[in-house]
Amino acid sequence: xxxxxxxxxxxxxxxxxxxxxxxxxxxxxxxxxxxxxxxxxxxxxxxxxxxxxxxxxxxxxxxxxxxxxxxxxxxxxxxxxxxxxxxxxxxxxxxxxxxxxxxxxxxxxxxxxxxxxxxxxxxxxxxxxxxxxxxxxxxxxxxxxxxxxxxxxxxxxxxxxxxxxxxxxxxxxxxxxxxxxxxxxxxxxxxxxxxxxxxxxxxxxxxxxxxxxxxxxxxxxxxxxxxxxxxxxxxxxxxxxxxxxxxxxxxxxxxxxxxxxxxxxxxxxxxxxxxxxxxxxxxxxxxxxxxxxxxxxxxxxxxxxxxxxxxxxxxxxxxxxxxxxxxxxxxxxxxxxxxxxxxxxxxxxxxxxxxxxxxxxxxxxxxxxxxxxxxxxxxxxxxxxxxxxxxxxxxxxxxxxxxxxxxxxxxxxxxxxxxxxxxxxxxxxxxxxxxxxxxxxxxxxxxxxxxxxxxxxxxxxxxxxxxxxxxxxxxxxxxxxxxxxxxxxxxxxxxxxxxxxxxxxxxxxxxxxxxxxxxxxxxxxxxxxxxxxxxxxxxxxxxxxxxxxxxxxxxxxxxxxxxxxxxxxxxxxxxxxxxxxxxxxxxxxxxxxxxxxxxxxxxxxxxxxxxxxxxxxxxxxxxxxxxxxxxxxxxxxxxxxxxxxxxxxxxxxxxxxxxxxxxxxxxxxxxxxxxxxxxxxxxxxxxxxxxxxxxxxxxxxxxxxxxxxxxxxxxxxxxxxxxxxxxxxxxxxxxxxxxxxxxxxxxxxxxxxxxxxxxxxxxxxxxxxxxxxxxxxxxxxxxxxxxxxxxxxxxxxxxxxxxxxxxxxxxxxxxxxxxxxxxxxxxxxxxxxxxxxxxxxxxxxxxxxxxxxxxxxxxxxxxxxxxxxxxxxxxxxxxxxxxxxxxxxxxxxxxxxxx
Length: 899
Hints:
Helices cover about 45% and strands about 25% of the residues. The radius of gyration is 58 Å and the shape is elongated. The N and C termini lie far apart (about 170 Å).
C-alpha cells in the first residue's frame, strides 16, 4: 500500500515540491478504479483458466485413452507382421523388438529387454550356434559397422542351419536405426528353381514355345527354336505356329487345340512337319498344353526333332524285312523256357516246319548234338554277362530227320523289357565241303612242297630241315651224324637216248633200291635231277656211313629194266661226317662237304664213295678274308644295285623291278650273293648291306614311272626290332611312295619268332608297303604261314618253273600254287622264266607277273631307266643262251634269294 501511495504522491508533487491534493485525490481515485478493473480481469482470467484446465484434463484423459488403444494396435501389428523387427537407439541399445525377432534367432525374452546392446545380442546368437564361421569377432564387428553406416541398405545372411535371412536397415533421423528381418529361404529356393527351370528351357535341345491362345502369336521361344528353324528371336515373335506347320490350315489347327481350350484334355501329342526359314522341312513331335501366365491362358509347346527317330523307324522296318527275307535262319527264343518267340521264313523253309510248329519247339529240339543241360552250359556266359555273343558250329536236324551243318551266332538282347536270345544260323554245308576239299588240296600241296613228286621222297627243303635238327641233337648229345650225297653215273645218257619217261622210270627204281638199304631212322631225299642225299642220324663211327655207302653201291650195280631195255648205271657217293671233334659245323656246310666229296668221287673214281677230308682251318681262313672284304666293300662303295624287270603276264609291259645286289670285287671280280650273303647274315653285316640296298633302290626308283619296286629283306633282319623303322626312315628321306614298295621275305624270316614277326610285318603293312613271300614252296609249312601273315603276293620258286612244260608234276604244282594265291586274294609271280613254253603255260594258268632271263637280266639303274622311258613292252630274249642264264641265276641273287 505504501508503495502504491508513494507512487501516487510522487505523481501529484509539482516541481516546487508541493503536493497537489486534488491531483492526488484524482490519482488515487483513478488508481483504485483501475485496481478494481484489474481485479475483475484477474478473476475473469482465473475463471477462464479453471475452465481451460478442466477442458485440458478431459482432453488429456481422452488422449491417454487413445494412446492406450494405439499402443495396443502397435503391439498387435508389431507381433503380427511377417518380418522380425527391432529398433535401436543411437548408442546401439535395443528400444523395442517383436517376438518373431527372438524366434528367428533363438533369443530369449529375458535377453531382449530395452537397453541390451547389439553386441550382447550378437554374442548370444554366436554362443547358440547361429554362426558357424571361423572368426566370430570379425562377424560381430562387420554387423556393428553396418548398423552404424547411416544409410538405408539391405543385406542377406545365410545362417548355419541353411536359412536365408534378408535384413533391411533403416537409419532414424534422431539417431539409431530400425531393422526388419525376413526369412526368404523358400523364396530363394523358388528363385533358384525357377532359374534352373529357365536355364533348362533355354538350353533344351528341344524347341519350346509359349504362344497366345487367341492370336497364336509367339510370346516366348528358346534358343533351340531359333537355331532349329533359322529365325532370329525378333522374327519368331512375329510368327505363329501356323507359319511353321505347312500341313495345317488355321481351321485345322484350331480343331487340334480346341480340346485344350475347352478343358477336355490336359495335353495333346501329335506328329507333324516343321518348315524352316530356308524352306526345308523336318519331322517333329509336338506336346501341347494350356497353362496360365500372368493371369491369362497361354499355350506351351515342347517340340522334338524326330528326324533321326523316323529314320530309325524306317531302318527298323527295313531291318525287319531283311530279317524276314534273309536266307539265314533267324530265331528269337525265351531265355528261361527256351521256347521260340519269333522265327523268320528261312527257318521254316530250311527246317521243314510251319511257323506254328516251330513256336512249340526249342533250339534243343533242332540240335541232336546237345542235351538241355549241355545247351544251358553254352548260353550260360551270355546269361551271366561274361560274353557279348558266342559263335559255334553244330548240326541241325530237319523235320524229316536229315541233318545239315550250321554256324550259330547267339546274343542275349532285351525285348519288351525282358531278356531273350537272338540267333543267326547259317547253313555251312557247302562251306564245310569246300573246307574239306581245301584241306585235302592243302595237304596235297604241302606234301608236294616237301616231297619229290616223282619218287615220293623228301625234297631238299624237308631234308635241310631234318639235317638241321640232327646237327642240333648231335651238338647237344655229342653223337655223330653223316650225310651221303649220291649221283647216278651216266644218267644224262639214259635221258638223251631213251627219253625222259624212261629216265623217270629209272629214278623211281633207283629210289626204291636205295630205300631198301637204309634204316627207318635215316632220311632219304631226292635233291634234284639224279642227285640224292641220305641223312644218317644214329651212327657211332664213320664206318657205319661207309657200310651204308657200299651197300648202296652194290645194290645200284645190278641192272635196271626199263620196258625192253636193260640198263646199267652206277652210283657215286660223297660222305661228310659230323661228330664230337667238329660238332660246330653248320648243317649247310656239312651238306656242302658231302657234295664236295661227291665231286671228288665223280672226278676220281665213279661208282664208289669218298669221305670229305679238307681241313676246316682253310675254310675258316677263307671266311675271315671274305668278311674283311665285305666290310671294305661297304666302306669303298664296291656294291651296286641292279634291277630285273617284272612283267605283266598279259601284255609284257613292265609292272615292276626287283632290286638285286651286285659285288664286283677289285681282285676276284664278280662275287655271287650266294657266296657272301650267308656270311653277312652270320656276322651282322647284313644290316648295313640291307640299308644300302633299300636306300639305293628307293633313291633310284623315286624318279621312275609308277611301277612297283621289289626289295628283299633278310630273315636275320627280323631277329631284332627296327626293320619297320628302317623302312619308314628310308621312305621319308628318299621321298619314295610306300605304296610302290614291295618287300620280299623268305620263309626263313617266319620261322624265327612267329609273334614278333607278325608284329613286324603288321607294322610294315601299316606304312603302306606290300609284302611278298619269296621262293614259295621251298619252306616248311608255308601254307600255315599264308593264313597268319599279311602277304600280298606269292613268288613261285624257280625250282618249280624249270621243269614246267616238261613234267606233269611241275605243271600240277604251279597250277595249285597260282590257284591258292588267287583264293587268298594274292597276286602270283613266277621267277626264273627262261622259255616261251614256261611263259605261255604261266599265262594260261593265270599267273599275274613273270620274271626271268627270258624277259631280261638284271641291269644297272641307268639301263633300266632307259628301258622304262622307251615305253615299249619287253620282247622276250628267245635266243638267250641257256648256259648263260644258268650262270646268271647263281650270280644274280639279291640280299636273300636268287633273282
